[in-house]
Design brief:
The complex is a heterodimer of chains A (730) and B (79).
Chain A: H1 3-28, H2 33-50, H3 56-74, H4 86-109, H5 116-128, H6 134-137, H7 142-145, H8 147-150, H9 154-160, E1 163-170, H10 183-186, E2 193-200, E3 217-223, H11 227-230, E4 241-248, H12 255-258, H13 262-275, H14 281-301, H15 308-314, H16 318-327, H17 333-342, H18 354-380, H19 385-411, E5 413-415, H20 417-420, H21 422-434, E6 438-443, E7 448-450, H22 451-472, H23 476-481, E8 488-497, E9 500-507, H24 514-523, H25 529-534, H26 537-542, H27 552-555, H28 565-574, E10 578-584, E11 588-596, E12 601-609, E13 612-617, E14 621-628, E15 633-635, E16 638-643, E17 646-652, H29 653-656, E18 668-676, E19 679-685, E20 687-695, E21 709-714, E22 720-724, H30 726-729
Parallel strand pairs in A: 6-8, 13-22, 17-19
Antiparallel strand pairs in A: 1-3, 1-4, 2-3, 5-7, 8-9, 9-11, 10-11, 12-13, 12-20, 14-18, 15-16, 16-17, 18-19, 21-22
Helix pairs in contact in A: 1-2, 1-4, 2-3, 3-4, 3-5, 4-5, 13-14, 13-16, 14-15, 15-17, 18-19, 21-22, 22-28
Chain B: E1 3-6, E2 9-16, H1 21-30, E3 35-44, H2 46-55, E4 58-61, H3 66-71
Parallel strand pairs in B: 2-3, 3-4
Antiparallel strand pairs in B: 1-2
Helix pairs in contact in B: 1-2
The chains are: A alpha+beta (730), B alpha/beta (79).
Pfam families (chain A): CheW, H-kinase_dim, HATPase_c, Hpt
Function (chain A): Involved in the transmission of sensory signals from the chemoreceptors to the flagellar motors. CheA is autophosphorylated; it can transfer its phosphate group to either CheB or CheY.
Enzyme class (chain A): transferase
Chain lengths: 730, 79
């Protein structure tokens, strides 16, 4: 596919995202003009861009969306603009979704699916129903909608002038005389009327057969006033009139105006108009870049490929651009060059294969390890001059490797906005389906995390949000009964925490009732009644993460939640993270996901058992301490220990690894407290060493079948350790 | 009566409304070479306008009203 096409796909995706966000904002605040405009622009640009390619259903659908929005924006049907309703938003969302699917298909297959025309038809009808009068829906938008504007005679053109005009297309109801309408008189109230064409809408019959009380004229007019000034004149006949903004190029014949394709000309003129829109410097800069891209694309599509620099140079303001289009590109490259140097070049993202990134990360990891071996060498070198030089060299290498590692890690970091983006839409749709009012608050979307972590995070986050909406936040009636504001608040907050990223999902809903959780656990046969009764409230609430605890049926009668929570926990823990839940019955629930910053480097606690070194991922370690032998209680072979006021089962790593028990009898036992999803476990080890960042290498070859190990890693001093997968081991 | 019919000349005066449509249609049809004088017309109803457009009478004098003079597609064709 051509570069132009690829560009369309990328831009269409961006525009659809923008449109989705604007639509959400608009639904929240129907009076939000900025969002209406943004939404309209997105549809408008999509229409223009898609028209360059052979994808009529796409163009047709966004065209219909644009029509609907122009009603919303300009209030063609009545005195005040129509307001966004949830039903209308639904229809527009469906249109956006369809477009997104098509863009995906375009990217994949280069063409729209076979059923596109049919799908477009249905959605267009949906958009045309309801708010939009049938007559208006069939119309086109903007310049397209008023083809006669492009076909004015020279005299008319001269009378009309150029620039932004408002076009009026008024076909009165033939019976309108009976209702007292006088179509011609309406035009007296149009401010700055530049042109009025009165034409028969059907061939005029011979006078003898003419019904004098039947209106057979239609009116086409151009006004220099804005749409908002023109619209009131026609407030009594909104269903018979179409009003839209059009822009006429200067009367002088420019290459663009002379182009056979009036759509392209209109698009170019629209780009010029965009350049003259007010805005901050940053906005204008980004607009200029976008306009330059669009103009280059349009010119290329018209078979007039033009040097990019020249186009960019021309896109400083509308006047320069019109001159550029009129005079042709070759005219003044000399003045154009220095300008293009100062014009901001749009940032282009660099796409790198993930495998190459991984290779780089692995190399950086190896480099850290090799660098670590330098330390002992330097110490062995003694105190001579050579040793001093070696030491300073080693220090420099240290900091460089640190920087390199940091830079390599940053390459993979992306803002969490990526996983936050689908949430507003999800919340909106789900809340609407459940008839709940929910305010979504997103915080910390700029927090960065490794791409792998984001991939891990996406699905659990959707689960949590869905659960909070489903089971957490109550219906407006119930909220009113408990003196809460009718709209629930769902807060998703991300922030960076020591070496990791934390995402919290909290709601101000009903919370989880620990008593109900205990009952449910017993009823499901997961726990004996007395064991359940012994659970602390915190642990009882944690039961939501227990596998098999929750099915939709079992939680429906609980105030809590549960669907898929064990899946959330499993996904997060697989990535070396942790899930915590805190809930206060009646006032809400907070679920916290803590994830490492990256999957490429794992922080482990090095432990020793039977003379070998093992690593335990730090994410799982709740604490390390020495426990007096006497405090380990054993019932048959099952041992337990009281840690932090909790009875924790104790396992010995030697036994887990099928090694002989420690012969030496010790006064104290070294214990690593591992926080596994379904409760803490104390792991007794021979000794606990340093914490180290290692590059985890998965088991390969014959070792792959070995269970209980996450992989191997090399320590800074070159020693090999096996990193344990405690969940599998236990 | 806003339209005064004088043999083959119809004078439009002041505001000419839809009430005049039927008489005007009959007059236009009955008159061999109808002539119209729009100079004193201040308002011309659409129904009258489309009759004039269909019958194409000789326009002795165009409207003096600025709006009508500018917009109605009836160039004076008179002497």
């Amino acid at each position: 596919m051509s570069e132009l096409f690829d560009q369309f796909v990328v831009e269409a995706q961006e525009l659809l995202e923008t449109a989705g966000a604007a639509l959400l904002a608009l639904e929240r605040d129907p009076a939000d003009r900025a969002s209406v405009d943004e939404l309209f622009r997105a549809f408008h640009t999509l229409k223009g861009a898609s028209a360059l390619f052979d994808m009529a259903p796409f163009t047709r659908l966004v065209h219909a969306g644009e029509d609907t929005l122009s009603l919303l924006r300009d209030g063609r049907r009545g005195m005040t603009p129509a307001l966004m309703t949830p039903e209308l938003a639904d229809r527009l969302f469906r249109a956006l979704d369809q477009c997104a699917r098509w863009v995906a298909a375009l990217e994949e297959a280069g063409a729209l699916p076979a059923d596109a025309a049919e799908a477009a038809e249905g959605l267009v009808r949906g958009l045309a129903g309801g708010e939009v009068a049938a007559g208006a829906a069939a119309s086109g938008g903007e310049a397209d909608a008023f083809p006669w504007v492009a076909a004015l005679t020279d005299a008319e053109r001269a009378a009309v002038g150029d620039g932004a005009l408002t076009a009026i297309d008024y076909t009165p109801d033939p019976e309108c005389f009976f209702t007292g309408d006088d179509p011609l008189a309406l035009f007296r109230r149009v401010p700055d009327l530049r042109l009025l064409r009165i034409e028969p809408s059907e061939p005029l019959p011979p006078l003898a057969q003419m019904d004098p009380y039947r209106c057979i004229l239609r009116f086409r007019a151009l006004s220099g006033a804005g749409m908002e000034a023109v619209t009131p004149a026609f407030r009594s006949v909104p269903d018979q009139v179409r009003i839209g903004s059009v822009t006429l190029a200067a009367a002088a014949v420019s290459p663009a105006a002379a182009l056979p394709d009036s759509l392209a000309a209109a698009m170019l003129e629209e780009q010029a108009r965009i350049l003259d829109l007010p805005g901050s410097t940053a906005e204008q800069d980004s607009r200029r870049a976008a306009v330059a891209r669009a103009v280059a694309a349009i010119l290329t599509a018209l078979g007039q490929p033009t040097e990019r620099g020249a186009v960019e140079a021309a896109c400083v303001d509308a006047g320069t651009m019109r001159r550029f289009l009129a005079d042709g590109p070759a005219e003044k490259p000399a003045t154009a060059e220095p300008r293009s140097a100062s014009a901001p070049v749009p940032r282009r993202a660099l796409r790198v294969e993930p495998e190459r990134m991984d290779a780089l990360m692995a190399l950086v990891g190896e480099l850290s390890v090799v660098k670590g071996q330098l330390g002992p060498l330097v110490r062995r070198a003694g105190n001579g001059e050579m040793a001093r030089d070696l030491k300073s060299f080693s220090a420099r290498l240290d900091s460089l490797v640190g920087d390199l590692r940091h830079a390599a890690l940053r390459l993979r970091l992306l803002p969490l906005a990526r996983v936050f983006d689908p949430l507003p839409r999800l919340v909106r749709d789900t809340a609407r389906r459940l008839d709940k009012n929910v305010e979504l608050v997103l915080e910390g979307a700029e927090t960065e995390a490794d791409k792998d972590i984001l991939d891990v995070l996406g699905e659990p986050l959707l689960h949590l949000v869905r659960n909070a909406l489903d089971h957490g936040i109550e219906t407006p009636e119930r909220r009113a009964a408990t003196a809460k504001p009718p709209a629930g608040t769902l807060r998703v907050r991300a922030f960076q925490d020591k070496g990791g990223v934390v995402v919290e999902v909290s709601d101000d809903g009903a919370g989880i009732d620990p008593a109900a959780m205990r009952r449910a656990a017993v009823a499901k046969g997961l726990m004996e009644p007395d064991a359940a009764a012994a659970l602390s409230d915190t642990d009882a609430v944690r039961l939501v993460f227990a596998p098999g605890f929750s099915t939709a049926g079992s939680v429906s009668d609980l105030s809590g939640r549960g669907v898929g929570m064990d899946a959330v926990r499993a996904a997060v823990e697989r990535a070396g993270g942790r899930v915590e839940v805190v809930s206060t019955p009646g006032s809400g629930t907070r679920v916290r996901l803590s994830l490492p910053l990256t999957l490429s480097i794992t922080r482990v606690v090095v432990v020793e058992a039977a003379g070998s070194l093992y690593g335990i991922p730090v994410a799982l370690v709740g604490g390390v301490q020495r426990v007096p032998r006497a405090e380990i209680r054993s019932v048959k072979r099952a041992e337990s220990v009281v840690l932090r006021d909790r009875v924790v089962p104790l396992v010995r790593l030697r036994r887990l690894l099928a090694q002989p028990d420690d012969e030496r009898s010790r006064e104290t036992v070294c214990v690593v407290l591992a926080e596994l999803g379904d409760g803490p476990v104390a792991v007794a080890v021979d000794d606990v060493g340093e914490r180290a960042d290692v590059v985890l290498r998965p088991m390969t070859g014959v070792l792959r079948g070995l269970r209980g190990y996450a992989g191997t890693a090399v320590l800074g001093d070159g020693r090999l350790i096996l990193v344990l997968d405690l969940r599998e081991l236990l | 009566m806003p339209i005064r019919y004088d043999a083959d000349l119809a004078r439009f005066e002041a505001a000419c409304t839809v009430e005049d449509a039927l008489p005007l249609a009959e007059w236009l049809e009955a008159t061999a070479v109808p002539r119209v004088d729009l100079s004193a017309c201040t308002e011309l109803h659409t129904a009258l306008l489309q009759l004039l457009m269909a019958a194409r009478p000789v326009v002795d004098a165009g409207p003096e009203d600025a709006f009508l003079a500018r917009v109605i597609p009836l160039p004076p064709t008179g002497p």
